[in-house]
C-alpha cells in the first residue's frame, strides 16, 4: 500500500469510531450532536498522557477511554430525563462547552527543553510518541484496525447477548421497555458511557497520528457528520456507520474528479439514499434478511 | 395478593386518583370497570411504577411496591399488558416475545420452552413468528402483548382494556384467552369498559369513577346493572 | 449599571433576530415534526443572492432585500421537496440527515460561486445613532427590533385570522386529524415551509445588513442560533421562540461585554446546558400537549 492509501484508510478508521459512537446512541433512541466532545477528550487526555506525562502509548489510550466513558456517564446522568430534541441540544451545548473550554485550556510542561502541552486556541502539538517509537504508518493503521475490530467485536458480543436488544427496545419505546422490566435510566447511561469511551478511543488514536490537535477540529460540524454516517450507512448493524464513513471519505477520495464538488455530490447521494431507504442502506429489515440467509 | 391502599396520583395539578383502595386476590380475575377518564390507565401505570403515586401503599404479599422503579416491579412479578402501545413494531414477533423474558434474572433458563408454550397457545403468532410485529392486526398484537407478558412468568398480570378498538368477534376471542388464563389459576387484574363481557369472567369487580372507587363486590351479588348504567351514563362511548 | 442596561438593549435587538430564526424553526417543527438542519443554509443562499445583486448591479436596499427573500424561499422549496415531502412520514431521522446533507450541498455550492472568505453586504447608511439619555441604540438595531415585532404581529394575524392559519394550526396539532378533516396537508406543509423561509430570510437580511459583511459560516450560525433559541423557549410555541431568542441575545451580549469572546462562548453554552436540565419545558413554560411533546421526544 502506498502512503496515500494508508492515510485515507487511517482516516476512515478514525472517523468510524466517532460514527459508531453516535450510532450507539441512535440505537438507544437519542440523537447526539456532541460526540465530538468525547473525541476531543480522548485526543487531549491521550496526548497529555504520552507527550506531557511521558506515559507509554497504551496507558495513554487506556486513560483516554476511561475518561471518555466516565464523562459520558456523568453527562448522561442529568440529561437522561431529557428527550428527543432537548437531549440533542444538551449534547450540543456540552460539546461546544468542551470546545470553548479547550480554547482557554493551557497546560504546558518543559519536556526536553520544549514547552509541551495544550496551549488554548493555539492547539497542542508534538504528540510524538508513535513517531519516536518508530511505528510506521502501515503499522499504525494496523493498530487502528485492531482497535476498530475490538469495538466491532464488542458490539457483536452485545448483539449475541441481550445488550443490543436492550438498547433497541429502550430506543423504540422507553415506557413499554420499562414495562418489560428494563431499567431505562441504567440502559441509557450505559449506552452513553460506551459511546463516550468509543469516541475517546478514536480521539486518542487520532491525536497520535496527527501529532497536532486544536479545539477548532472538534466543532459541531464534525459531530453532525458522525451522526449522519450512521443514518446513511444504516441503523441495522454496527457496520452501517462504518459504511457511511467509507462512502463519504473512501469513495470520494478515490474519485478525484469530484474534487471541489465533493459535498455537492455526497449530499445529493445521501438525499437519494434516504428517500429510498429512510433508515439507511443497511437497515434492520436488510440485516434480518442477511441473518436469515446466513443461517441457511 | 396485591393490596392497594389510598393511592393518590396526580398529573401536575390535576388529581387523577384521589385515594384508591382495592384488593387483587390470588388466583382469580379481578376486574376494574369505569367510564372514560375515570383513571383506570392511571392506576395501571401507577402500579407498574411508570407514574409515581403521591401517597398510599401497594403491598404485594406484604411487600411494599410504591416507590420501586418499573423494572423492579416487573422483577417482583407484576407484569403489564398496556393499552394502545402494545408491541415493539420494528422487531419480529419472536423477538418481542423474548424481550418479555428479559426480566427473569433468576430463572434465565427455560426461555425456549416458554417461547414454545406461548406459540402453542397462540398458533396465529407461530405462523407469523418472523414477521415484524408492526404488521400484525390489532387482535394479533393484543395476543402478542399477552404472550410477551406470559414470558415474564408473572405472578400478577395487569391488563388495560384488551378489547379497545377490536371487532366484537376478536374481543370474544381475547376474552376466551383471558378466561383460560384464569382457569389455569393465574392472578389477573383486568381493566375494562366492556362491562357485560368482563363481568361474565370476573370473580370480583370494582367500579372506578372520577378517581374514586365507588363500588366493590362480586358479579351477581347485587343488581349491578343499575349501578353500572349510572356510572357510565353519558360518559360511555358506543362500544 | 449603565453598561448592563446598554448590553441588555443591544442583546434584545440581536435577540429579536434570533427570535425570528427560532420562529422559522418552530413553524417548520410544528407542522413537520422534524428538524430542518438546512434552515440556516437556505437563508445563506438568500443572503448571497442579495450580496451578488449588490456587488454586480450595485442594487439598493430594497432589491437586495427581495433577492435575499427569494433566494431563501427557493432554496427552502428545494429542501422541502427533497428532504421532507419525498421522505416517508414516520422517518423523522431520515429527514434530519437528509436536510443535513442538503446543508452541506448548499453551503458548498455557495462557496464555489463565492470563493472569497467574506463579501460586502449593503448597510443602512445615513441613519443617525439614537440617544436615549446615557444609552445609545444603533439604528440598525431599532430596525431589527421593529421589523421583528411587526413580523410577529403579522404572523399572529395570519395564524388566527386566515384559513391558511387555521389549517396550519390543525396540522401542527394533529396531522392525522387534519388530513381526515380535509386539510390539504402537503400543500399547507409546503406553504408553511416557505413562510418560515421568508421569515428566516428577513432575519438573515437584517443580520447581514447590520454586520455589513457576510461569509459562508452564516448558514451554520443561523441554524444553531435558531435551534438553540427555539429549544430554550420551549418547543413549538411562537411566544417561546421569541422569548428564547431574546434571552439568548441578552445573555450573549452581557457575557461578551464582561467576559470577552471565549468567556461568552463558555457562559452561553454552560447556561444552555444547565437551563435544559433545570427547565426542560423551556422558558415559556406550560405543559406541552400530547402529540407535540411526543414528537419532540421521538423526533
Ligand atoms: N398526561 C396527562 N396529563 C394530564 N392529565 C392526564 C394525563 N393523562 C391522563 N390525564 C387525565 O387523568 C384522568 C384519568 O385518565 P386515564 O387515562 O387514567 O383514564 P381511563 O380511565 O384510562 O380512560 P379510558 O377509558 O378513556 O382509557 C383523565 O381525566 C385525564 O384527562
Ligand atoms: Mg385508559
TrEMBL record, chain A:
Molecular function (GO) terms for this protein are: branched-chain amino acid transmembrane transporter activity
Q: Where are the transmembrane segments?
A: 12-33, 53-77, 139-160, 189-207, 227-247, 259-277
Q: Name one Pfam family in it.
A: BPD_transp_2
Q: Repeat: present as a keyword of the record?
A: no
Coarse class of the primary localization is membrane
Provide the protein's localization.
Cell membrane
Ordered alphabetically, the record's keywords are: Cell membrane, Membrane, Transmembrane, Transmembrane helix
Record's bilayer topology term: Multi-pass membrane protein
- Gene Ontology terms: cellular component: plasma membrane
The entry's protein name is: Branched-chain amino acid ABC transporter permease
- Organism this protein belongs to: Palleronia pontilimi
UniProtKB/TrEMBL annotation, chain B:
Q: Which UniProt keywords apply?
A: Amino-acid transport, ATP-binding, Nucleotide-binding, Transport
Q: Biological process (GO) annotations?
A: L-amino acid transport
Cross-referenced InterPro entries: AAA+_ATPase, ABC_transporter-like_ATP-bd, ABC_transporter-like_CS, BCAA_Transport_ATP-bd_LivF, P-loop_NTPase
Which molecular function terms from Gene Ontology are attached?
ATP binding; ATP hydrolysis activity; branched-chain amino acid transmembrane transporter activity
Which parts of the sequence belong to the ABC transporter domain?
2-235
**What family, per the record?**
Belongs to the ABC transporter superfamily.
Name by which UniProt lists this protein: ABC transporter ATP-binding protein
From TrEMBL, chain C:
**What molecular function terms (GO) are annotated for this protein?**
transmembrane transporter activity
Q: Which residues cross the membrane?
A: 12-31, 38-55, 61-79, 141-164, 185-207, 227-248, 269-287
GO BP terms: namely:
amino acid transport
Tell me yes or no: is GTP-binding among this UniProt entry's keywords: no
Q: Which GO terms describe its cellular component?
A: plasma membrane
Which family is it part of? Belongs to the binding-protein-dependent transport system permease family. LivHM subfamily.
What is this protein's record name? Branched-chain amino acid ABC transporter permease
Lineage, top ranks: Bacteria, Pseudomonadati, Pseudomonadota, Alphaproteobacteria, Rhodobacterales
Amino acid at each position: 500500500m502506498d502512503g496515500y492509501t494508508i492515510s485515507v484508510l487511517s482516516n476512515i478508521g478514525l472517523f468510524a469510531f466517532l460514527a459508531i459512537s453516535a450510532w450507539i446512541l441512535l440505537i438507544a433512541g437519542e440523537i447526539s450532536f456532541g460526540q465530538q466532545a468525547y473525541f476531543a477528550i480522548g485526543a487531549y487526555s491521550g496526548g497529555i498522557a504520552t507527550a506531557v506525562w511521558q506515559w507509554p502509548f497504551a496507558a495513554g489510550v487506556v486513560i483516554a477511554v476511561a475518561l471518555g466513558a466516565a464523562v459520558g456517564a456523568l453527562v448522561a446522568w442529568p440529561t437522561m430525563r431529557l428527550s428527543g430534541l432537548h437531549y440533542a441540544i444538551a449534547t450540543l451545548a456540552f460539546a461546544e462547552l468542551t470546545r470553548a473550554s479547550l480554547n482557554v485550556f493551557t497546560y504546558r510542561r518543559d519536556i526536553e527543553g520544549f514547552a509541551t502541552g495544550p496551549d488554548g486556541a493555539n492547539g497542542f502539538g508534538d504528540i510524538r510518541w508513535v513517531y519516536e517509537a518508530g511505528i510506521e504508518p502501515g503499522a499504525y493503521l494496523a493498530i487502528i484496525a485492531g482497535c476498530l475490530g475490538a469495538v466491532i467485536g464488542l458490539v457483536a458480543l452485545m448483539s449475541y447477548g441481550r445488550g443490543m436488544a436492550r438498547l433497541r427496545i429502550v430506543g423504540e419505546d422507553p415506557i413499554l421497555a420499562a414495562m418489560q422490566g428494563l431499567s431505562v435510566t441504567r440502559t441509557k447511561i450505559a449506552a452513553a458511557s460506551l459511546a463516550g469511551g468509543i469516541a475517546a478511543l478514536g480521539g486518542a488514536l487520532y491525536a497520535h497520528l496527527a501529532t497536532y490537535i486544536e479545539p477548532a477540529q472538534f466543532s459541531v460540524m464534525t459531530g453532525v457528520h458522525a451522526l449522519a454516517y450512521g443514518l446513511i450507512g444504516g441503523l441495522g448493524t454496527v457496520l452501517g456507520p462504518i459504511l457511511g464513513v467509507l462512502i463519504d471519505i473512501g469513495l470520494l477520495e478515490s474519485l478525484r474528479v469530484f474534487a471541489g464538488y465533493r459535498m455537492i455530490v455526497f449530499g445529493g447521494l445521501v438525499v437519494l439514499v434516504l428517500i429510498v431507504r429512510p433508515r439507511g442502506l443497511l437497515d434492520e429489515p436488510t440485516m434480518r434478511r442477511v441473518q436469515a440467509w446466513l443461517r441457511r | 395478593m396485591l393490596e392497594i391502599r389510598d393511592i393518590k396520583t396526580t398529573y401536575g395539578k390535576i388529581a387523577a386518583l384521589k385515594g384508591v383502595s382495592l384488593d387483587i386476590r390470588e388466583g382469580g380475575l379481578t376486574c376494574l370497570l369505569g367510564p372514560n377518564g375515570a383513571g383506570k390507565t392511571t392506576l395501571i401505570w401507577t402500579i407498574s411504577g411508570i407514574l409515581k403515586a403521591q401517597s398510599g401503599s401497594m403491598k404485594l404479599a406484604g411487600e411494599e411496591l410504591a416507590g420501586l422503579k418499573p423494572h423492579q416491579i416487573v422483577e417482583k412479578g407484576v407484569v403489564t399488558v398496556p393499552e394502545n402501545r402494545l408491541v415493539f413494531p420494528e422487531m419480529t414477533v419472536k423477538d418481542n416475545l423474548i424481550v418479555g423474558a428479559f426480566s427473569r434474572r433468576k430463572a434465565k433458563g427455560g426461555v425456549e420452552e416458554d417461547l414454545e408454550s406461548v406459540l402453542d397457545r397462540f398458533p396465529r403468532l407461530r405462523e407469523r413468528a418472523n414477521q415484524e410485529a408492526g404488521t400484525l392486526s390489532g387482535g394479533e398484537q393484543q395476543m402478542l402483548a399477552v404472550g410477551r407478558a406470559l414470558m415474564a412468568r408473572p405472578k400478577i398480570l395487569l391488563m388495560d382494556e384488551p378489547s379497545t378498538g377490536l371487532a366484537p368477534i376478536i374481543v370474544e376471542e381475547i376474552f376466551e384467552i383471558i378466561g383460560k388464563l384464569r382457569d389455569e389459576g393465574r392472578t389477573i387484574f383486568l381493566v375494562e369498559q366492556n362491562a357485560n363481557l368482563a363481568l361474565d369472567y370476573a370473580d370480583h369487580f370494582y367500579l372506578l369513577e372520577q378517581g374514586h372507587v365507588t363500588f366493590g363486590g362480586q358479579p351477581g351479588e347485587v343488581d349491578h346493572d343499575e349501578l353500572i348504567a349510572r356510572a357510565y351514563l353519558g360518559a360511555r362511548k358506543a362500544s | 449599571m449603565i453598561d448592563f442596561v446598554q448590553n441588555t438593549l443591544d442583546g434584545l435587538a440581536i435577540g429579536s433576530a434570533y427570535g425570528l430564526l427560532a420562529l422559522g424553526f418552530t413553524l417548520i417543527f410544528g407542522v413537520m415534526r422534524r428538524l430542518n438542519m438546512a434552515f440556516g443554509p437556505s437563508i445563506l443562499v438568500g443572503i448571497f443572492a442579495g450580496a451578488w445583486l449588490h456587488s454586480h448591479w450595485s442594487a439598493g436596499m430594497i432589491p437586495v432585500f427581495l433577492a435575499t427573500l427569494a433566494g431563501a424561499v427557493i432554496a427552502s422549496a428545494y429542501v422541502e421537496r427533497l428532504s421532507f415531502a419525498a421522505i416517508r412520514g414516520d422517518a423523522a431521522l431520515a429527514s434530519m440527515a437528509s436536510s443535513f446533507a442538503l446543508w452541506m450541498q448548499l453551503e458548498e455550492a455557495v462557496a464555489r460561486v463565492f470563493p472569497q472568505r467574506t463579501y460586502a453586504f449593503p448597510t443602512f447608511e445615513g441613519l443617525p445613532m439614537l440617544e436615549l439619555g446615557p444609552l445609545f441604540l444603533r439604528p440598525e438595531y431599532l430596525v431589527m427590533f421593529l421589523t421583528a415585532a411587526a413580523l410577529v404581529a403579522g404572523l399572529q394575524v395570519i395564524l388566527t385570522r386566515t384559513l391558511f392559519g387555521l389549517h396550519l394550526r390543525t396540522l401542527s396539532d394533529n396531522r392525522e386529524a387534519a388530513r381526515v378533516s380535509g386539510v390539504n396537508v402537503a400543500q399547507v406543509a409546503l406553504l408553511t415551509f416557505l413562510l418560515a423561509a421568508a421569515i428566516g430570510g428577513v432575519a438573515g437580511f437584517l443580520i447581514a445588513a447590520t454586520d455589513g459583511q457576510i461569509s459562508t459560516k452564516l448558514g451554520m450560525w443561523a441554524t444553531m442560533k435558531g435551534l438553540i433559541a427555539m429549544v430554550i423557549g420551549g418547543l413549538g410555541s411562537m411566544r417561546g421562540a421569541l422569548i428564547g431568542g431574546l434571552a439568548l441575545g441578552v445573555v450573549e451580549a452581557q457575557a461578551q461585554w464582561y467576559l470577552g469572546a471565549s468567556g461568552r462562548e463558555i457562559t452561553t453554552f454552560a447556561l444552555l446546558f444547565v437551563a435544559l436540565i433545570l427547565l426542560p419545558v423551556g422558558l415559556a413554560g406550560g405543559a406541552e400537549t400530547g402529540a407535540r411533546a411526543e414528537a419532540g421526544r421521538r423526533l
